[in-house]
Specification:
The chain is built from 7 helices and 17 strands. The chain is of the alpha+beta class. It has 3 domains: 102 residues, Thrombin, subunit H; 89 residues, Trypsin-like serine proteases (Thrombin, subunit H), CATH 2.40.10.10; 46 residues, no CATH class. The chain is globular, with a radius of gyration of 33 Å.
């Protein structure tokens, strides 16, 4: 018990050893309720700041948008390994020397040149990275081009949002068209914008812009048996590709990356070979003439002869 008493005294001594400051007439003690009120007021102010919407840049008129983003857009002049020549489009939106396009535009390329609206031509050295499933490719330019880069939009756009596309439909480079994001589709496991913007062969790889002039996607393909029904890869899919990889030359790509493009993608490339273009024009005119004759024959019995591989097959039926 004596030991416990000594311990108690020590405890008492420790507790009373600290001298308290004597209260003075001028010293103020904060009221606990007031302090609680201040904390509550700070919480309300914090919530108000968090709930305040972020002010986005104002929508641009089509004229201002075109002037703003045009320096970033390029027409790609592509020569394939088989010697075929065609064009596509691309945009500077990641770096001053890296362009984004659709993979099918350059998948079998032997050489590629980028041409800008002011006439500047830049050689494309090769491909930094590519994704055939998403139909995306990052291209390395021969040199850096400062003050041309467009702003990359990082948010998925909403259905019915306005959209613009700038590209080279049928070879008419740096053409602009507009429309809406008709829907957001899952195509083969990949999210794609369905667009009402008019898109033609030559638009492959064209940038899709929102009303603030941000790149929100890359034109990929169009449904040929429908009107104004095209598809683009959203910019969110860009993150799956590597930007800092050393570029592979076209020769290295030919040896390492197999080319197996679906027909819907091959048809979106605009051929620039004069002989092939003449053949495509003749085929299109022949088809239109046949379509007109077929429509005029509704209700009539017709006979059609089809020649294939040296054989002739005849079909007789009533057009309904």
């Amino acid at each position: 018990m004596a030991h416990l008493k000594r311990k108690d005294k020590a405890v008492v001594k420790l507790r009373t050893n600290v001298k308290r400051a004597a209260p003075t007439a001028n010293r103020l003690r904060p009221d606990r309720r007031f302090a609680k009120f201040l904390r509550l007021l700070g919480l309300v102010a914090g919530l108000a700041c968090a709930l305040t919407p972020v002010r986005l840049p104002a929508a641009l008129t089509p004229e201002k948008l075109y002037q703003k983003v045009l320096p970033s857009v390029m027409t790609l002049e592509v020569e394939s390994r088989s010697g075929e020549k065609f064009i596509g489009s691309a945009v500077l939106a990641l770096a001053d020397d890296v362009a984004v396009t659709a993979w099918h535009v350059v998948a079998d390329a032997r050489s590629v040149w980028a041409v800008f609206a002011d006439g500047q031509r830049v050689k494309v050295l090769g491909c930094v990275d590519q994704d055939g499933l998403r139909d995306l490719a990052f291209l390395k330019l021969e040199k850096r081009l400062p003050h041309r880069q467009a702003v990359l939009g990082r948010q998925l756009q909403s259905v019915a949002a306005h959209a613009y596309v700038i590209g080279a439909p049928k070879g008419y480079d740096f053409s602009i068209s507009d429309g809406l994001i008709s829907q957001i589709r899952n195509v083969g496991g990949i999210l794609q914008y369905q667009l009402s913007c008019p898109i033609s062969p030559g638009n492959s790889g064209s940038p899709i812009f929102n009303q603030r002039g941000e790149v929100i996607g890359i034109a990929s393909w169009t449904k040929v048996d429908a009107q104004n029904m095209s598809f683009a890869i959203p910019s969110q899919e860009f993150i799956g590709l590597k930007l800092t990889e050393p570029p592979k030359t076209w020769q290295e790509l030919a040896a390492s990356v197999p080319v197996a493009l679906p027909p819907r993608l091959i048809k979106t490339r605009q051929n620039t070979d004069p002989e092939l273009k003449d053949k495509e024009t003749a085929d299109a005119e022949c088809y239109l003439a046949f379509q007109k004759w077929f429509n005029d024959s509704i209700g009539k019995s017709v006979t059609i002869a089809v020649q294939e591989a040296g054989r002739t097959n005849t079909f007789t039926f009533t057009v309904r």
